Amino acid sequence: MLRGTLSARRVVPIIRSEAAQESREFYGLLGFEEVMNHGWIMTLGSPAAPAAQISVMTEDATAPVTPDISVEVDDVDAAYAAVRANGAEIVHPLRDEEWGVRRFFVRDPSGRVVNVLSHL
């Protein structure tokens, strides 16, 4: 197993759904509140533990696929270089997004699409 100097800051599962309002209400029953909403993606978080989050997405605004999980890292450029050097499939290239993140999508060994990002 390779181990680098990268540090994961946050991991958020993403649920693809056309029922955003219903999902907000359902996860509200479990203690989550809306912390971000761009219309196409909404993130719900726990007021008691802000790192506990889940996102609900209808579709990705700029990528060809909907990711399964988001991993925020301390250095997205280093993460991009590492997964490319390892031969992983890049699903969405590294780019700066208008909502303040730099990100790329990569397919993990099980076929899941991972949104790897850092905030700008």
From TrEMBL:
Domain VOC: 7-119
Entry annotated with the keyword Membrane: no
Keyword tags: Dioxygenase, Oxidoreductase
InterPro entries: Glyas_Bleomycin-R_OHBP_Dase, Glyas_Fos-R_dOase_dom, VOC_core
A Pfam family matched in the record: Glyoxalase
Molecular function per GO: dioxygenase activity
This protein's name: Glyoxalase/bleomycin resistance protein/dioxygenase
